[in-house]
Write a structure and sequence with these properties.
544 residues; 74% helix; globular
């Protein structure tokens, strides 16, 4: 299954010989070294007896950061394993080969995870630099890496399963991220909460979690191999558009009724009449046909998973502990970033993949009609889906005394959510305009979100309270004006304040939030202008 598997040989040769493998390894190592250089104690003589707390904090930040990054990168490497074969019209050739389904699935999985394992192995020297600080044992290092390996195996199996179910790589990638994100969050919270119980955490991370992850992953891989043995989506040259009415009769779980409110807001029915004079044909095509030409399975899973996660979060952070309401805002912001990538990152790349970009660029449509139509269609879907998660925030404001006394703060929170939703749509659309494939555009969008949204917040939290990193904390706070998460955390809970000192603090927070709103809106205008200019001038690389 492994030694003479042609799938592994072919995929490894094609993957490891690409320039991106070496570039990714370089960037990953540089990021880890930068983290260590920033957080390493700046003293002439290191007192090992007093550095345990700092070392433990550094190791947790290092391992959890590496765990989260590798976990979220895994779908981008594995989501195209089977779906990519369908998109390249080579699915039937793969099934007709003399290989059995299980070697195919394992070959795809191992070949996809090998570059990530190389990244993890490359971090060994950096970890051993931190061991002299104390506070971390070799057993904890071993447990951390074992957890990362089996987490990658589990997440790779989830992505392979999604890739075997969906016909598009973008759909498989999106659903994989939706399913993986709660597991990553739960593992991180469990790791941090079990810090006082070292032995228990060691056993859970090195024995219990690997066994559970291995069992679940093996079952998922078996299910994926059964789909290959009895394929339900044969015929790559068949009908590319799914009959939505037929899908309703076969759908399991939530149904989308396009003729009813509020479903018609994000999934309107197909047009049965001619387009009105003066209407934007690009927008009409996108919203009525293109976005859901492959069915509504992706949309239904995203809605159900988002609501399932939102219920406990809103119960805790809006009604039980309203002082932590900004954590619920973080969840809405993260969901919108994912939704915007799903529905906007394929706007222009899908035209290239279908080889219709030349027809679009040579049409008499203006740049605004093309860019505006596609942008508004994707923003409409992602915005409406995000609005469903905003209603609990409104309900919590009306029912909770602490939030009801802060109506202005809640209005600012809604403004941050609205502007961030627009920025995410523009960002995904921008990546789709200047990249060649939908998967590349989605990955680029996620990387931009990590760099500009999450990195300033994590850096600010890590350096808070450390006098030696005060300058870095100030710089992270300044760079945080680009992050909606930082803006959400700067929203004051009791606003306006009555004391003079608190009033000054509230004024600074208000200026911070308003600065984020202004910078983000200007960035959106610049991004739209650049995309319109590129399409209006029919730049040559747009249709390469």
């Amino acid at each position: 299954m492994f030694r003479f598997n042609p799938i592994i040989q072919r995929e490894l040769i094609s993957n490891l010989r690409r320039h991106r493998s070496f570039v990714l390894l370089l960037i990953y190592q540089a990021a880890l070294m930068t983290l260590i250089l920033i957080a390493y104690p700046r003293v002439e003589r290191l007192d090992v007896s007093n550095s345990g707390v700092e070392a433990e904090r550094l190791s947790n930040f290092f391992f959890l950061g590496q765990f989260a990054i590798l976990s979220m990168i895994t779908p981008s490497f594995t989501a195209a394993s089977i779906a990519g074969e369908k998109e390249r019209k080579t699915y039937e050739m793969l099934l007709a080969s003399p290989l059995r389904p299980m070697p195919i699935i394992f070959g795809k999985l191992i070949a996809s995870l090998t570059p990530l394992l190389l990244l993890m192995i490359g971090s060994f020297p950096i970890v051993f630099i931190c061991l002299p600080l104390g506070g971390v044992s070799l057993e904890e290092v071993f447990a951390g890496y074992v957890s990362i390996v089996f987490a990658m195996y589990l997440f790779g199996a989830i992505s392979i399963t999604c890739s075997s179910v969906f016909k598009r790589t973008s759909s498989a990638l999106a659903i994989s991220c939706v399913l993986i994100a709660p597991i990553v969050l739960a593992f991180i919270l469990l790791w941090l909460n079990l810090a006082p119980y070292g032995t228990t955490r060691l056993v859970l991370s090195s024995i219990v979690f690997p066994i559970v992850a291995a069992i679940i992953a093996t079952l998922l891989l078996y299910y994926s191999s059964r789909r290959l043995l009895y394929p339900q989506d044969m015929g790559s040259m068949g009908n590319e558009v799914i009959d939505l009415e037929k899908e309703k009769t076969e759908a399991i779980g939530m149904l989308i009724q396009s003729e009813q409110f509020p479903d018609r807001l994000f999934a309107p029915p197909r047009r049965a009449q001619l387009i009105a004079d003066g209407a934007n044909p690009v927008y009409d095509k996108e919203i009525h046909a293109e976005l859901f030409s492959q069915g509504t399975l992706t949309l239904r899973i995203i809605i159900q998973m988002s609501m399932l996660i939102a219920i406990p979060l809103m119960s805790v952070f809006l009604f039980i502990e309203p002082a932590w309401y900004y954590f619920y805002l973080d969840y809405i912001l993260a969901f919108n970033a994912l939704a915007a990538a799903v529905f906007c990152a394929g706007a222009m790349t899908s035209e290239r993949e279908r080889q219709t970009i030349d027809l679009l660029l040579t049409s008499p449509l203006s740049g605004w009609q093309i860019i505006g139509g596609k942008l508004l269609a994707g923003f409409r879907v992602s915005g409406v889906l995000t609005t469903f998660l905003v209603w609990p925030l409104v309900l919590g404001t009306l029912l909770t005394t602490e939030l009801r006394r802060n109506v202005l703060t809640m209005l600012l929170a809604v403004a941050v959510l609205a502007v961030c939703s627009l920025a995410n749509a523009v960002l995904a659309m921008f990546c789709s305009t200047f990249l060649q494939r939908t998967r590349q555009a989605m990955v680029a969008t996620f990387i931009a979100v990590l760099l500009f949204y999450l990195a300033p917040l994590l850096l600010h939290e890590f350096t808070a309270g450390n006098s030696t990193l005060r300058t870095l904390n100030e710089w992270s706070n300044r760079l945080g004006v680009l992050s909606p998460f930082m803006a959400a955390h700067h929203l004051p809970l009791q606003f306006p304040f009555e004391e003079s000192e608190s009033t000054g603090e509230a004024s600074n927070s208000l200026i911070y939030v308003l600065t984020y709103l202004a910078i983000t809106l200007v960035s959106c205008l610049v991004g739209v202008a650049v995309m319109m200019s590129a399409v209006s001038r029919r730049w040559t690389y747009l249709h390469r």
